[in-house]
Amino acid sequence: MRVAALYDVHGNLPALDAVLAGVPDDAAIVVGGDVAAGLFPAETLERLRALGDRVHWLRGNADRELTPGEEGLAPAQMLDWVRTQLSDEQIAFLHGLPPSVTLDVDGVGRVLFVHATPRNDVDIFTERTPEERVAPSFAGVDADLVVCGHTHTQFEREIAGLRVLNAGSVGMAYEDAPGAYWALVGPDVQHRRSTFEPRESDYPDEWPSASRDEAVSHFETLAVGS
Ligand SMILES: [Mn+2]
Hints:
CATH superfamily: Metallo-dependent phosphatases
CATH class: Alpha Beta
Low-confidence stretches: none
Structural class: alpha/beta
Number of helices: 7
Mean pLDDT: 96
Bound molecules: manganese (II) ion
Number of domains: 1
Radius of gyration: 16 Å
Oligomer: single chain
Strand order of the largest sheet: 3-2-1-9-10
Number of strands: 10
Helix content: 10-25%
């Protein structure tokens, strides 16, 4: 099999639709977490649920934090509004997702998909984070490739002998060129960008934007082990 890794869609329906138009028909889809929390929560979730067994789901921090009482990182005002847009069933579906997915991918091998790091859904690291600081978050992992997201920037690096890919963000990318960022895994690893026309929603706050360098510098101040 080969797999389209769609991470951090954040409710951005036009971005998701642009990406889905570019996903090969024979590819499975991994939804890498933080799927609904954003502009069009219910429509985005249902667009992906309608794809049925082709989709492998895992849970991001912003999916988990929609359930009251969960701690994490997502802004409270975003979570409050998103909760008004989703049914109890949809919030429970997101909360019930597993923390990781493992798939055998043609030409790549055993691939572990997680939201942030194999250790949890909140650890932050970037392409710049010193390896010795982030390595404990990958301790004990046996995989040919680990696919992460969470920081909304696409990159590939090595950590503790592991090949690590950040798939980038479909719906809230912090990149120099605008678009929806994702990855096609198998038989090689392709970093992909799909362009889309942004659409406004009733989302009450300003949609965060930052340059790639600003975002990486900010995330570095929050990075694991710092
Ligand atoms: Mn996210």
